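Training component of the fellowship. As part of building independent skills, the fellow (R.M.) carried out the full modelling exercise for a liganded target. The chosen ligand was 5'-deoxyadenosine. The inputs are recorded below so that the supervisory panel can assess the work.
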Amino acid sequence: MHPLQCVLQVQRSLGWGPLASVSWLTLRMCRAHSSLSSTMCPSPERQEDGARKDFSSRLAAGPTFQHFLKSASAPQEKLSSEVEDPPPYLTMDELLGRQRKVYLETYGCQMNVNDTEIAWSILQKSGYLRTSNLQEADVILLVTCSIREKAEQTIWNRLHQLKALKTRRPRSRVPLRIGILGCMAERLKEEILNREKMVDILAGPDAYRDLPRLLAVAESGQQAANVLLSLDETYADVMPVQTSASATSAFVSIMRGCDNMCSYCIVPFTRGRERSRPIASILEEVKKLSEQGLKEVTLLGQNVNSFRDNSEVQFNNAVPTNLSRGFTTNYKTKQGGLRFAHLLDQVSRVDPEMRIRFTSPHPKDFPDEVLQLIHERDNICKQIHLPAQSGSSRVLEAMRRGYSREAYVELVHHIRESIPGVSLSSDFIAGFCGETEEDHVQTVSLLREVQYNMGFLFAYSMRQKTRAYHRLKDDVPEEVKLRRLEELITIFREEATKANQTSVGCTQLVLVEGLSKRSATDLCGRNDGNLKVIFPDAEMEDVNNPGLRVRAQPGDYVLVKITSASSQTLRGHVLCRTTLRDSSAYC
Ligand code: 5AD
Ligand code: SF4
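Fellow's submitted model of the complex:
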């Protein structure tokens, strides 16, 4: 047998997923192969362990072809409370966490925060405990990001620190296991196992259900990986354990993956094809969060407004997709399914006191029905993230964004007409392949023209596998990228300050989050546009109980009179406690 036993798995949409997403799963068999033993074999202490030897020989026998056939025929309808049947080379006992303590560390975007909660939900059901103390951990899992080179470098540095922790670990304790989860596991696959021998497990974004098995394999001192991408995994039945959620708000994943293939972006390669979670399971989660008293839900997805639930045959009509005017897709137009407007409508009806936000959308999927709904429904926040990436049509074409500067600007005007007072934010990349000074000036002028309330600005980072990597040249020198980035940041701040200052003198509805980080006498919350609002903690009237004097608590809605504004924060003083329905705030 080859030291790297590589089982090519052909996924079909039910069970093992589609042919298009052929991926691999490896089990490293270091004991069986002396060529690898010096660097990869377990410690003598572990070699003496008879039980594990037995385990190793079962593992060496490996999963049989029949095992994969058996799995292939079974649809993925599993209850999250059920621990999976063990594969033939593991016993049920080995699959359980045996109270081992897991330390989870999250890097990157909000999707990763949500993935951490999903991974933890799966491990918890398998008998693992969670710890927030690194020293106490038996298993350390890093949920990683690959979007830019710097994000990956941070993980490599962290791994070097963890290596010291692993080597210093006393023999009296169970060996420390380290795992890489998420995008970096998917992008680099076995390269991580080869480069960092102390990494025990790898799990790609669609393989979290397999974590108990991967950790069980790692128990015997062997490396294990599952980086299979799936066409239908949405973890719909896994209720995330919302440990990161505040008392007031939570994120709810509604779709995964991306089909857009922007030429600079690694996401379609690390997170796979676009797929949506069935509406029924989203509504169920939102209802639970409302029952728990949460006041804000952010619908989450890589392309949240491209949502399309076609989980049931009757949803699959031939209604063509309405795109924003002047926008195109890099893929064949999709049809049918329940779309984002339908979901937004349903979700916003669950609890009129619950604010609804969504991130991150793509500008192509803002048909009028979505804009109308945002305008009409009180509890859908008037806040839209509209990633532009560049203000130059030439660069946008090279990025394969599917729109020109003109189409984007027209969409901005249309959104502002449809939703008066809407707050806009955007993403921009400085120094993309072939970007000239003139292109950069175009981006500067777009920032000035739109005057965003918030912005996320990045220097371009070439990623292997992307279209830009294969077809374009990363020809903007690093110092030029950074200089352009700084210019964009300065201009964005100037414009955001101006935009935010239009709120001064207005009364705004603020959802209270808690104490301000900077002062124990101030409270902090967010306005409808998701901007931070700071105000002194003072007694006020409760409009629903006239005469009653109260102090604001996390989860309360209060009216705040805005007195000053910067590029990132508003300040004001509190007027009264109210409800979302009763508030006739604003300017
Ligand atoms: N380099 C720099 N920024 C990138 N983004 C995505 N890929 C890259 C890259 N290769 C940015 C885009 C995207 C945001 C999430 O990250 O602006 O909208
Ligand atoms: Fe990346 Fe473009 Fe997909 Fe966003 S839309 S995740 S930038 S490929």
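The panel noted the following from the submitted structure. Residues 258, 260-262, 265, 267-268, 302-303, 362 surround iron/sulfur cluster (ligand 2) (CB under 6 Å). The longest helix spans residues 478-501.
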